[in-house]
Specification:
This is RNA transcription, translation and transport factor protein. Belongs to the RTRAF family. By secondary structure, the protein is an all-alpha fold. The protein has helices at about 1-15, 25-30, 35-45, 55-75, 75-80, 85-95, 110-120, 130-145, 145-155, 175-210, and strands at about 215, 220. The protein is about 60% helix and about 0% strand. It is elongated and about 115 Å long. Helix 1 packs parallel to helix 4 (about 55-75). It has three domains: about 1-80, no CATH class; about 105-155, no CATH class; about 165-210.
Length: about 220
């Protein structure tokens, strides 16, 4: 609204900026005058605003910044130690959401502790100690919780395998050696499957640490 905008400019000058003497504010206060835009343009130049009056949003933002700076300058002792309530609440929320955020990653004791844990858990070293700590946390959550240990401790009963149904692909000329070769091939396939599973787990763990935006490996696309 044009009238509200003009009143706002007058209020800023009267209450906060006070660039003109009171007797020199008449033209700016006459908000219903057809010449008010010219008075406003002169005012913007007089306070050294770098924007033109056509750039209204930028001009308003700059004038507000000037008003805040002048207000602070007049009451520096009052405002210098103030913290907005919203910032306090945001800080508390951030602390609760991410307990690692306040750690001093440059502290030698912190680095030594992370390195000791990484060596104990056989986690590869990283230049960023905070990344290493997050990797340790993921490993502990996924592998060292009571549920994870109990699941890993469960004995796995193997299924009987009929060797005659698995074609070896070559013949050594000895039935015993042929059977041993079939067993070795089946064991090798099982090792390859375990290796592939570990590779998949490693990819997921790396994505959990560094991916941003997060990667949904099941869908094969990136997004939140």
């Amino acid at each position: 609204d044009e009238t509200e905008f003009r009143n706002f400019i007058v209020w800023l000058e009267d209450q906060k900026i006070r660039h003109y003497k009171i007797e020199d504010r008449g033209n700016l206060r006459n908000i219903h005058s057809e010449d008010w835009p010219k008075s406003f343009e002169k005012y913007v130049k007089d306070v050294n605003c770098p924007f033109k009056i056509q750039e209204r949003q930028e001009t308003v933002d700059w004038l507000l910044g000037l008003a805040v700076r002048l207000e602070y300058g007049d009451n520096a002792d009052k405002y210098k130690d103030s913290t907005p309530d919203g910032a306090k609440n945001a800080d508390n929320t951030a602390k609760n959401a991410e307990p690692l955020i306040n750690l001093d990653v440059n502290n030698p004791d912190f680095k030594a502790g992370v390195m000791a844990l990484a060596n104990l858990l056989q986690i590869q070293r990283h230049d960023d100690y905070l990344v290493m700590l997050k990797a340790i946390r993921i490993l502990v959550q996924e592998r060292l919780t009571q549920d994870a240990i109990a699941k890993a401790s469960q004995s796995k009963e193997g299924l009987p395998v009929a060797l005659e149904k698995h074609i070896l692909g070559f013949d050594t000329g000895d039935a015993v050696i042929n059977e041993a070769a079939q067993i070795l091939r089946l064991l090798h396939i099982e090792e390859l499957r375990e290796l592939q599973t570990k590779i998949n787990e490693a990819i997921v763990a790396v994505q959990a640490i560094i991916a941003d935006p997060k990667t949904d490996h099941r869908l094969g696309k990136v997004g939140r």
